[in-house]
Amino acid sequence: MPKRPPLTPVVDTLPETVPFVGPEAQERERGRPFRARIGANELSFGPSPKVIARMAEVARDQWMYCDPDNFDLKVATAAHLGVGVENIVVGEGIDGLLGLVARMYAGPGDAVVTSLGAYPTFNFHVASVGGRLVTVPYEQDRESLEGLLDAVRREKAPLVYLSNPDNPMGSWWEADEIDRFIAALPETTMLVLDEAYGELGPASALPAVDVSRPNLIRMRTFSKAYGLAGIRCGYAFGEAQVIRDFEKIRNHYGVSRMAQVAGEAALADQAWLAEVVAKVAAGRQRIASIADENGLKPLASATNFVTIDCGGDGDFAGKVMQGMLSRDVFIRKPMAPGLDRCIRVSVGLDHELDIFAEELPGVLAAARGN
Amino acid sequence: MPKRPPLTPVVDTLPETVPFVGPEAQERERGRPFRARIGANELSFGPSPKVIARMAEVARDQWMYCDPDNFDLKVATAAHLGVGVENIVVGEGIDGLLGLVARMYAGPGDAVVTSLGAYPTFNFHVASVGGRLVTVPYEQDRESLEGLLDAVRREKAPLVYLSNPDNPMGSWWEADEIDRFIAALPETTMLVLDEAYGELGPASALPAVDVSRPNLIRMRTFSKAYGLAGIRCGYAFGEAQVIRDFEKIRNHYGVSRMAQVAGEAALADQAWLAEVVAKVAAGRQRIASIADENGLKPLASATNFVTIDCGGDGDFAGKVMQGMLSRDVFIRKPMAPGLDRCIRVSVGLDHELDIFAEELPGVLAAARGN
Question: Which residues form the Aminotransferase class I/classII large domain (chains A, B) (predicted)?
Answer without folding.
Answer: 39-358
